Amino acid sequence: MIVGAIEGANHCFGKPDSMTDKECFSLRVRVERVEFEGGMTTQFVSAWYPTPDELKRLNEGAAVHLGIVGGGHPPVWLAVGESPL
């Protein structure tokens, strides 16, 4: 996947000091406050674009994999955004 520029980006996460530029890169996100189960929470939204090969595999029925680095699995979500065209 290729990281994209999310509309309304208002924060940039840098890579951890313990990782190289080849292992990790900065990620521009849109920080939002949203209502969740009767309360408010913060979410970080980023944009990712499939490469032509990944898009081909997705169209053939391949799954999207989500990897979490660290010792736990936070709540996450995946969705398809609006077409940039």
Describe the model.
The structure is a single chain. The chain is mostly beta strands. The protein has a domain at 2-59. The protein is 9% helix and 31% strand. It has one helix at 52-59; strands at 2-4, 11-13, 27-36, 39-45, 47-49. Strands 2-3-4 form a 3-stranded antiparallel β-sheet, with no helix packed on it. Strands 1-5 form a two-stranded antiparallel ribbon. The chain starts with a strand and ends in a 26-residue tail after the last helix.
In short:
The protein has 85 residues and is mostly beta strands. The protein contains one helix and five strands, in the order βββββα.
Count of DSSP E strands? 5
Strand content: 25-35%
Uncertain segments:
none
Q: Please give the oligomerization state of what you see.
A: single chain
Mean pLDDT: 89
Using only C-alpha atoms, the radius of gyration works out to 15 Å
Give me the side-by-side strand order of the main sheet.
2-3-4
What letter string, H or E per element, gives the SSE order?
EEEEEH
Write down the overall geometry.
globular
- Tell me the major beta sheet: 3 strands, antiparallel
Helical residue percent? under 10%
Which class of secondary structure composition applies to the elements?
mainly beta
Q: Ends: how far apart?
A: 18 Å
Helical run tally: 1
How is the topology of this model organized?
Layout: E1 2-4, E2 11-13, E3 27-36, E4 39-45, E5 47-49, H1 52-59
Antiparallel strand pairs: 1-5, 2-3, 3-4
Keywords for this structure?
three-stranded antiparallel beta sheet; 1 helix; mainly beta; two-stranded antiparallel sheet; 85 residues
